[in-house]
Amino acid sequence: MSISISKILSSHDINELKAQGSYLELKRVTENQLSLKLNVRSWVTLFDKVTHLQKAAPANKASILSIISSHPVEDAKKQIEKLIDVKFSTADSKQLKSHFLLLCKAFKKAAFDPYQKFEETKHKNFQHSSRLEGINMNVVADKSLESVLAKYQR
User: Fold this and answer.
1) Does residue 51 share a domain with residue 16?
2) Whether residue 102 is found in the same domain as residue 118
3) Same domain, 88 and 15
């Protein structure tokens, strides 16, 4: 099973994130695709870091780009770490800028997932067509594996 960075970034809760694969795989894919070091050790911190980056990176984009262009690389990396709480492992400012723009681009793509939109539309259309035939389909909330096992456990 291949893990997509867009699916990781578009996870709405920890259970959705866990459904993508194992913790180490998700962490490794995220770090490799975004070219940064996350410094996380659990599911909760991984999810918190991803959601924090989704908000902090685009919000501070202009200030971070000005920091990169006006400061030496080491100073810029320290200031960026304070702003968005992530470490970049780069040697020069050009590479630092490209890694940060890659990070912003990844979060921009995560905002719209065509597959997810297709699945939502398909489910909604199925409900409406069933209602036309007199069958009422109620929306069922997704349940975690633990809750289903707890319900049927003896």
Assistant:
1) yes
2) no
3) yes
Question: Facing residues of 87 across strands?
Answer: 37
Instruction: Identify the CA nearest to 54 among candidates 115, 105, 15.
Output: 105
Digit-coded pLDDT (tens) for 39-55:
899 999 999 998 998 88
The radius of gyration of the chain from alpha carbons, rounded to an integer in Å, stands at 20
pLDDT of res. 53: 87
What's the burial of 51, exposed, middle or buried (CB within 10 Å: 0-12/13-18/19+)? Answer: middle
Low-confidence ranges of the chain (pLDDT < 70): 1-2, 109-111, 139-142, 154
- The number of distinct structural domains making up the chain is 2
- C-alpha to C-alpha distance for 116 and 65, rounded to whole angstroms: 32
Strand-pair partners of 37: 87
Residues 61 and 77 in one domain: yes
Helix (H, G, I), strand (E, B) or coil at 25: helix
**Structural domain containing residue 138:** 114-152
Helix (H) or strand (E) holding 41: none
Examine the domain organization and report whether 83 and 135 are in the same domain: no
